[in-house]
Amino acid sequence: MSVSVTPKAARQIRKALDQRGGGYGLRVAVKTSGCSGYAYALEFAEAPSPDDLSFESEGVCLLVDAKSLPMVDGTQLDWVREGLNEGFKFNNPNATASCGCGESFAV
Amino acid sequence: MALLQIAEPGRAAAPHQHRLAVGIDLGTTNSLVATLRSGLPTVLADEDGRMLLPSVVHYADGGEIIVGDAARALAIRDPQNTIASAKRLIGRAAADIAPGTVPYTLSELGPGAIGVATRAGVKSAVEVGTEVLRALAQRAEAALGGPLVGAVITVPAYFDDAQRQATKDAAQRAGLTVLRLLNEPTAAAVAYGLDTANEGVYAVYDLGGGTFDVSILRLARGVFEVLSTNGDAMLGGDDFDACVVRWFCAQQPDFAWSERDAAALHAAARSSKESLSSESEVMMRCERSDGVSQMARLTREVFEAETEPLIQRTIAPLKRALRDAGLKPSDIEGIVMVGGATRMPRVRRAVADFFGREPHTDIDPDQAVALGAAIQADQLAGNRAVGDAGLLLLDVCPLSLGLETMGGLVEKIIPRNTTVPTARAQEFTTFKDGQTAMAVHVVQGERELVSECRSLARFTLRGIPPMVAGAARIRVTFQIDADGLLSVSATEQTSGVQTQVEVKPSYGLAHDTVAEMLRSAIDCAESDAAARMLREAEVEARSLLDAVDSALSADESLLMPREQFRILCALQDVADLLEQCATSEGVNPIEQKDLREGLRQATQALNEATTDFAARRMDARVREAFSGRSIEQIGG
Fold it and tell me: What is the 3-state secondary structure (H, E, C) of B270-309?
């Protein structure tokens, strides 16, 4: 079981943490909402919680809570630029369908 | 595929709930658009990475409209059809514009509006602003990958209502929802996080391309108040460039420059000036249109000596602004520098000397206003939790808003000093059996009785399905938007019928009127309370009277003769007292209290007299429901 990030995403995460003035790492979570059932959430993490699993990828610490992990297992987080827009993209092998806007997904 | 941004812990937005909102600095010379990305305000650049969009619009042959750098490049060749600095004209009447302020042929467009004659027709300043805002909105939507819910647009603190309204109109024509107009100095202060800082007085020194503004702000309990503004509408970075051009030409008295070289000279002067902010000297070089070039060594000392009169011209408005606010330079807690021209070390030094403390310069002075607007836009779009620290309170409603309930009483829905925008809802019900309509009377004020408050609006909700009194659920929602516009809607929950009305609660209310309304509420607190309690007792008595009446006519057969007599007596007592109340208008609080006490006893007596009757009615209903059915049927 694992989640990982691309080198590009890692650079952005480190940059965001620096600009923010520190933080333990990045929390990757799945919430039950949105039009296709689940939605991703990316948050800065101050400290790990007891039910967190932590993964090290490209020098970045990723925290995933035990409940979310099955849904995002094997996911690779990428940083992409689409036109003027840029942000994080989830390449999640578990997702079977995502809504038109891509903000939520189903497993 | 939507792209995600990182959020602060616990703040990740649910899908479709992160609302894209931007802050726009609509400047005289340049405009910018910024938004919050991963919690940090960021200026959005165009495809070529340029952040500043020159506020210049060119009306080309064939109806094409060009905005920004391309338009500015055309300004020299075709000045009549290229409009720059439209902000100087927005919301102004011809009489307001000092001669020589703008290089165009102005024409009157009706009362209070002027336009510039171009090949595409007469263009008003609002239309020019619309084009600039449209270009920024398109840039933002391309950068954020979705439609914007709204924008916060900054305006100079001295803009009057007409200028603010015109700016809003321009935004609406550009398809933008204006979340709020924000004063430029306030936006800069927000960018520096002063809204979460200690309370105190701050100065904002804004030296832009063509205008100079000073604002003195007071921060108290998260609300910024503009104490005074001053400035010079004809002073800016361009004047420093002109100064350098004059110096440069004076270095070679025999060398003739023509009108056509003006743009090249200006560009050379500008880049020399910019270099001198970091270098101690620069080689200024400029090529004449015939290919012959000239150069001269410009040191920072010479530059500063040449431009010293301009620096001094910024100090006088500073002094005036402080005097208007009744403050000394040492009273100022902090100074915020805004505008590209404040990069010049001499400007910073002059400001530091004047106030006796170093100004804030960490944020790019070109961007500070847009960044502050972006932070405010994010908050107004609802991307932060309610009650979150740092939410800037800019406006409060001065008086409570409520509606009339039975007996002429006021039910307050939005208490005074609530920060806007806000929305509150409360449920009401019907008073009479079979009531199908309800009048909603919106009032403003602090008093308990409707007659003492200011009436704002009335409307009627119709089509309530007939039900017994108290069964209908009518939800009344009061909503005040950021501009102080109140909308009230009433919805009957079971049938969904709805009506609503919009009012401007502060319209025509002077500060003194508000103060007077507050004072009378305090002075009359005791008598108001007595009057309110009496009215409440009346309403209760009347409702009991109605209930007993309808019960008597429905189930007269269940009454014992003596009981009937007792009930009718008690009924009469209550009715008599109610009549007394109806004529009690204006009696003193003590008499009101006696009346209320009498009414309370009479209602209680009526209640007691009807207790057995009510119990028998209940039994009769139960028997009706169960008669002729077996236990099994009832159980099923």
Answer: HHHHHHCCCCCEEEEEEECCCCCEEEEEEEHHHHHHHHHH
* Among B282, B296, B289, residue whose Cα is nearest residue B249: B296
Q: Which two tokens stand for residue B159?
A: 């803009």
Distance CA B481, CA B488 (A): 11
Is pTM, for the whole model, over 0.90? no
CB B14 within 8 A of CB A33: yes
Tell me which chain A residues have a C-beta less than 8 angstroms from the C-beta of B8. Answer: 43-44
B362 close to A (CB below 8 A): no
Contacts of A99 in chain B (CB under 8 A): 15
Minimal-distance CA residue of chain A relative to B39: A20
C-alpha span between B472 and B461 (Å, rounded): 12
3-state secondary structure of B426: strand
Residue B7 per-residue DSSP state: B
What pLDDT shows up at residue B391? 47
Average pLDDT of chain A is 80
Displacement of CA B500 from its chain's centroid (Å): 22
- B518's tokens: 């507050």
Write the pLDDT tens digit of every residue in A55-82.
888 888 999 888 788 878 888 889 888 7
CB-based burial, B42-76: b 16+ in 10 Å, e otherwise: bbbbbeeeebbbbbbbbbbeeeebbbbeebbebbe
Q: What is the pLDDT of residues B34-43, one digit of tens each?
A: 998 877 889 9
Type of residue at A54: S
Question: What percent of chain B has a predicted confidence (pLDDT) above 90?
Answer: 27
B619: left (phi over 0), alpha (psi -120 to 50) or beta: alpha
- Tokens (6 digits) for B232: 């010079």
Residue type present at position A94: N
Tens digit of each residue's pLDDT (9 = 90 or more) over B217-262? 888 766 777 788 888 888 999 899 999 999 998 888 888 888 778 8
Token digits of residue B71: 């338009």
B433 noted as active-site residue:
no
Q: What is the pLDDT averaged over residues B548-552? A: 84
E strand or H helix that includes residue B168: helix B161-173
Residue B273 has pLDDT above 60, yes or no: yes
Average confidence (pLDDT) over B434-454: 84
| Residue A49 burial (10 A CB sphere; 0-12, 13-18, 19+) | exposed
- The number of beta carbons lying within 10 Å of the beta carbon of residue B194 is 23
Asked if A105 and B26 count as a contact pair (C-beta separation under 8 A), the reply is no
The verdict on A43 touching B (C-beta cutoff 8 Å) is yes
Given CB atoms, is B77 within the 8 Å cutoff of chain A?
Answer: no
**Candidate from B8, B14, B44 with C-beta closest to A43:** B8
Residue B386, pLDDT > 50, answer: no
Backbone angles phi, psi at A5, to 5 degrees: -130, 155
Strand partners, B124: B115
Structure tokens at B600: 């309370």
Residue numbers of B between 432 and 471 with CB closer than 8 Å to A: none
CA–CA distance, B634 with A87 (Å, rounded to integer)? 63
- Per the DSSP assignment, residues forming a β-bridge with B178 are B151
B40 interface with A at CB cutoff 8 Å: yes
Please give, rounded to a whole number of angstroms, the shortest distance from the CA of A1 to a CA of chain B. 23
Q: Is B46 a catalytic residue?
A: no
Lookup: tokens for B152: 């916060």
Instruction: Report ipTM for this prediction.
Output: 0.75
Q: Closest partner residue to B2 among A31, A86, A103, by Cβ?
A: A103
In whole angstroms, give the CA distance from residue B337 to residue B358: 10
Nearest CA-CA partner of B481 in B414, B421, B416, B393: B421
Q: Is the pLDDT reported for residue B389 higher than 50?
A: no
Question: Which tokens belong to B242?
Answer: 């002109």
pLDDT for the residue numbered B539: 83
- Is the model's pLDDT at B493 over the cut of 90? no
Token pair 């606010």: residue = B325
Q: Over chain B, what is the mean pLDDT? A: 83
